[in-house]
Write a structure and sequence with these properties.
The structure holds two protein chains of two kinds. By secondary structure, chain A is mainly β. The termini of chain A are far apart. Chain B is mainly β. Chain B has no helices and eleven strands. Chain B is globular and about 40 Å long. Classes of the chains: A mainly beta, B mainly beta. At the A-B interface, strand 5, strand 9 and strand 10 of A face strand 4, strand 5 and strand 10 of B.
Chain lengths: 116, 107
């Protein structure tokens, strides 16, 4: 697509429920990133894919968080047994470059998660 | 790890004014980018600028890699320039983000 597309834009869930957030990167972009942004702060790195391979998941807060990108395009970030502290804006970004991993980051509009 | 400091934290200007935002890094970086988060929450890439100078309309940026800082210049400010400006830098994909500069342009 023309830009990075994320869904849902807003998600309200009850504590303990699982949520899945979807990201569709710019067509042809090799690298895909997930970030989390708390109100009033800059984005925080969660995980990163080159094609379908998860290259770095060091930013995932704990084992309730997981991400996949099975066909090297669309990615899903899953949060199991959500907690109130998981409430945040979850942002996906993509870049065209794989080898250097230094290309311009293009962000989607984000998925705002609220856990009650 | 690398630390990123942005200044000033807040800036209020009248429409038409010029401004300079600064980003300092504690160590050398090979990836440095400036972003604008508008009041609707969209995060937009302004510049990918690990070194040198770039210009895009009323915005320009300069990075002096040897001295570990980058500057973002906004000329003839418009109300649509309001929002938070972030710089992010690091090695390859591992970007560290500054706390941002909150810019308010008054009509």
């Amino acid at each position: 697509g023309a830009g990075v597309s994320q869904s849902p834009r807003y998600k309200v869930t009850k504590r303990g429920q699982d949520v899945a957030l979807r990201c569709d990167p710019i067509s042809g972009h090799v690298s895909l990133y997930w970030y989390r942004q708390a109100l009033g702060q800059g984005p925080e790195f969660l995980t990163y894919f080159n094609y379908e391979a998860q290259q770095d998941k060091s930013g995932l807060p704990n084992d309730r968080f997981s991400a996949e990108r099975p066909e090297g395009s669309i990615s899903t970030l899953t949060i199991q047994r959500t907690e109130q502290r998981d409430s945040a804006m979850y942002r996906c970004a993509s870049t065209g470059l794989a080898a250097a991993n230094t290309g311009e980051l293009f962000f989607g509009e984000g998925s705002r998660l609220t856990v009650l | 790890g690398i630390q990123v400091e942005q200044s000033p934290p807040d800036l209020i200007l009248q429409e038409g004014a010029n401004s300079t935002l600064r980003c300092n890094f504690s160590d050398s970086v090979n990836n440095l980018q400036w972003f604008h988060q508008n009041p609707w929450g969209q995060l937009i890439n302004l510049f990918y600028i690990p070194s040198g100078t770039k210009q895009n309309g009323r915005l320009s940026a300069t990075t002096v890699a040897t001295e570990r800082y980058s500057l973002l210049y906004i000329s003839s400010s418009q109300t649509t320039d309001s929002g938070v400006y972030f710089c992010a830098g690091g090695e390859n994909y591992q970007l560290i983000w500054g706390a941002g500069t909150k810019l308010i342009i008054k009509p």
